[in-house]
Amino acid sequence: REYENTHGGQTVDTYWLIFELMWRDFFRFYCVKHGDSVFHLSGPKNTRRAWSRESKLINAWKNGQTGIPWVDANMRELLNTGFMSNRGRQNVASYLVHDLGVDWRYGADHFESLLLDHDVCSNYGNWVAAAGLTGGRINRFNMSKQANDYDKDGRYVKMWCPELKELPSKSVHSPWGLSSSEQSRLGVLIGTDYPAPIRAPKRGFTGGKDNRSGRNGGGKGYKKTKNFRGKGRVHRGRTQDFYTS
Asked: Is 54 left (phi over 0), alpha (psi -120 to 50) or beta?
């Protein structure tokens, strides 16, 4: 606030910095309130559901070999750099728990072991929320829509999944849709050069809505929020954050 007062007021950057710090503080208070239950399989609300602990699914997710390029690119970035964007963290968490049905604690543990900015409360608080165990809104993301909103031309995916570098933008996020002749021509055989989807997606991979209170998700929804007083645009689709630590 002192910086804003001496440098011309609030900006988009200072808004988001404070926003992130408030999320960090929220999860610290959340963990104080709920204690060890944030580490329990059933979470603070003691929600019972069947979870998979299939090593094939867990290892494919950890190593960026799920066959879903948007997920794989984010997981490979984490594996190689110790970093992943907040958008990526939300998306790969959603994929692990909602599409693969894997015990969310495997995801939290993996993040804890690799993230350079790991914060216990932010990490486990977000993971237990992603798993739908807090009683709040469940953010279940459509991977295809997220990929096309945030990596429309496929540059990010091609950086971390070089097997797909020759694919046209329209196919890079769903390479399994290419015919055998197209795969041969482009030099990427699905199931050989790049994995086929380890599990058929539960949600359509053709766009549409993300399951977040029925609102359209994605990268085009900008507006001024009631708490933003500066110049610029604030993204309306932003959800809770896995950091700042």
From this structure: beta
Does residue 112 have an active-site annotation?
no
Catalytic residue among 61, 70, 127, 160: 127
Per-residue pLDDT of the chain (245 residues), as tens digits, is: 788 788 888 888 888 888 888 988 999 999 999 999 999 999 999 999 999 999 999 999 999 999 999 999 999 999 999 999 999 999 999 999 999 999 999 999 999 999 999 999 999 999 999 999 998 888 899 999 999 999 999 999 999 999 999 999 999 999 999 999 999 999 999 999 999 999 865 544 443 345 543 333 333 443 444 554 555 444 444 445 555 33
Predicted TM-score (pTM) of the model is 0.82
Confirm whether 51 is a catalytic residue. Answer: yes
Active site residue 16: no
Which of 61, 70, 91, 104 is flagged as catalytic? Answer: 104
Neighbours of 215 (CB within 10 A): 12
Angle, helix 120-130 to helix 12-34, in steps of 10 degrees: 80
The tokens describing 228, both together, are: 């933003």
Active-site annotation holds for 127: yes
- CA dist list (Å): 50 to 42, 53, 58, 100, 106: 10, 10, 16, 12, 14
Q: Is 86 annotated in the active site?
A: yes
